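Consider the tokenized backbone below.
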């Protein structure tokens, strides 16, 4: 082991990735875009790589690794109580995401 690599352990497994969320004051459309992107990843993973590529072509998300979506969904839903699409997207990501390593997390305070 040389001096440059001593004490450094190799990375084992796949890396996770995360999407930054818009600031809390952002338009609801910005949050919808991120949630739709997460749901697209979920759908691709539920289908599997080959079926996802057949269905979505070059837009299939076949990347591996855990995806983290940091979002204070309770606060966002409280700010937009009448926004049905927002409510449905949050519900879908919460319910379906964990089975395919897409996790909705609360931001650190």
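A designed sequence for it:
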């Amino acid at each position: 082991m040389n001096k440059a690599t001593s004490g450094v352990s190799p990375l084992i497994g796949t890396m996770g990735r995360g999407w930054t969320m818009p600031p809390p004051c952002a338009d609801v459309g910005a949050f919808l875009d991120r949630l739709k992107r997460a749901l697209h990843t979920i759908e691709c993973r539920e289908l599997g790589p080959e079926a996802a590529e057949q269905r979505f072509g070059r837009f299939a998300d076949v990347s591996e690794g855990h995806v983290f979506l940091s979002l204070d969904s309770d606060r966002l839903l409280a700010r937009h109580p009448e926004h049905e699409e927002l409510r449905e997207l949050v519900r879908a990501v919460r319910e379906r995401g964990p089975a395919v390593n897409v996790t909705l997390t609360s931001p650190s305070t």
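The chain has a mean pLDDT of 82.
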